[in-house]
Amino acid sequence: MLKLVLCFVLLASAGGGWAFNHGQDLADFEAYVAQYAKDYPTASARSFANYYFIYNRNQVNQHNAQADRNQTTYREAVNQFSDIRLVQFAALLPKAVYPTVSNAVTPVATQAPAVEYDIVTDLGITVTVEDQGVNCSSSWAYAAAKAVEIMNAVGTGNQAPQSLSAQQLIDCAGMGAGCSTQAPQSAFDYLTQYSELYPTDDYPNNIQLKQQGMCLPPPAVAVGVKQTSYSVIAENDDTALIRYVSNDIPVVVEYNPATFGFMQYSSGVYQPATRAGQATSSQFLVVVGYGFDAATNLNYWRCLNSFGPGWGEQGYIRIVRSASQPIAKKAIFPNS
């Protein structure tokens, strides 16, 4: 017992955090801090970050050891979130609150789906993967902007579209909740009723803001993308989802991000653990494709996230496609 107490005392830092400032652990943490340009406000905060970096790094290594033995279908990696607890990560992405009235129109008719399809890859569209940062829970705006961008690229045949501004949606459609609990429908309501969506060159994204900013008018020479309407898919209707995606329609879905697997996803087909209870976090993804992975013998959805190109498979995640785990949650998409 005396040895255990002594060990506990030695691990506690003077600042009230935890320090493992020795050997390879310290070298790894310092390299991590440099790679992600981390800046901690206090010595205590740095010590806590050090502790959770080591914890998460070890969790990644343990998970990947299972992947090496084919005991899991995806791999994890250290990333920008690896210095915080899972509960902190979940708190960065609070549950979305939806408008009570919808202006959605009846979806357009579609043809029978292909066996496998990917809008971005098959049409050769170059899509810039955005990073929403850690200050503003803004995936609703980034996902809506990317869906409009991809939809417009399909309609115009432009394989290298300009990135469209999520910041414009945060500032102008956020309604006070642009960095907290907003949903993509508000973005589409704003675009169909009030404004075009402008390129980031005319309305730059700003991931340093912790609250939505003032809605600014774009330059007089700015040319935006106009949306006439949007549609929704019935809850859990993955059959409809696959049909729309197969017909070149990028669909935004709500996803529960509050797992280690999602937080530190790196590659492969992600299979979330079956959890009881209702999700308390929201991250919005753009479903751009679906297919079959021979390595894992699993069907999957390919989704664009907004955690930057260093997260996942160059900013994308493949999620298992299964009748028991439908992905069509609050699914919504822009019409041309």
Automatic annotation (TrEMBL):
Domain Cathepsin propeptide inhibitor: 29-89
A GO MF label: cysteine-type peptidase activity
SMART domains registered for this protein in UniProt: Inhibitor_I29, Pept_C1
CDD domains: Peptidase_C1A (cd02248)
UniProt-listed Gene3D superfamilies: Cysteine proteinases
UniProt key word Signal: yes
Highest taxon of source: Eukaryota
Signal peptide: 1-19
GO terms of biological process kind: proteolysis
InterPro entries with a match to the protein in the record: Papain-like_cys_pep_sf, Peptidase_C1A, Peptidase_C1A_C, Peptidase_C1A_papain-like, Prot_inhib_I29
Membrane-spanning intervals of the chain: none
Keywords, ordered alphabetically: Signal
Entry keyword annotation includes Signal: yes
Domain Peptidase C1A papain C-terminal: 113-335
Family: Belongs to the peptidase C1 family.
Entry protein name: Blast:Xylem cysteine proteinase 1
Lineage: Eukaryota, Metazoa, Ecdysozoa, Arthropoda, Hexapoda
